[in-house]
């Protein structure tokens, strides 16, 4: 927030920030009895995406950056899966999670591109 680092200008960083905001918005509509389960897991996974992108971007080695981006992508898949569970349990509708779905898809595409780029540069 206070450091003006280059990674904050990356699309993937902006998408992951939007992911957190949308994940928090969606979790507010989940049942109270899911507070320590689905709500907590969704929020932690969304935050993990953003934090791993930030930390990975600060790494000097392409291999290290790639590893953090892979962890971020894994957390993103976790968010998608948790939303699928919430939908399956009829806690949310597609209308309620549509914007989150768009952010997940865009984040996944950009993250995969970064991973592939760092893989190619690392070979």
UniProtKB/TrEMBL annotation:
InterPro entries: 23S_rRNA-intervening_sequence (IPR012657), 23S_rRNA_IVS_sf (IPR036583)
PANTHER family noted in UniProt: FOUR HELIX BUNDLE PROTEIN
Name under which the protein is recorded: Four helix bundle protein
Biological source species: Candidatus Opimibacter skivensis
């Amino acid at each position: 927030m206070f450091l003006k680092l280059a990674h904050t200008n990356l699309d993937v960083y902006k998408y992951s920030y939007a992911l957190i905001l949308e994940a928090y918005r969606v979790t507010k509509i989940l049942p109270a009895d899911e507070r320590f389960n689905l709500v907590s897991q969704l929020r932690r996974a969304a935050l993990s995406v953003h934090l791993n992108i930030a930390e990975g971007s600060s790494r000097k080695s392409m291999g290290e950056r790639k590893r953090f981006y892979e962890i971020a992508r894994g957390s993103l898949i976790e968010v998608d899966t948790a939303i699928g569970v919430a939908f399956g349990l009829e806690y949310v509708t597609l209308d309620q999670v549509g914007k989150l779905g768009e952010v997940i898809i865009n984040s996944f595409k950009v993250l995969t591109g970064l991973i592939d780029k760092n893989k190619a540069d690392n070979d």
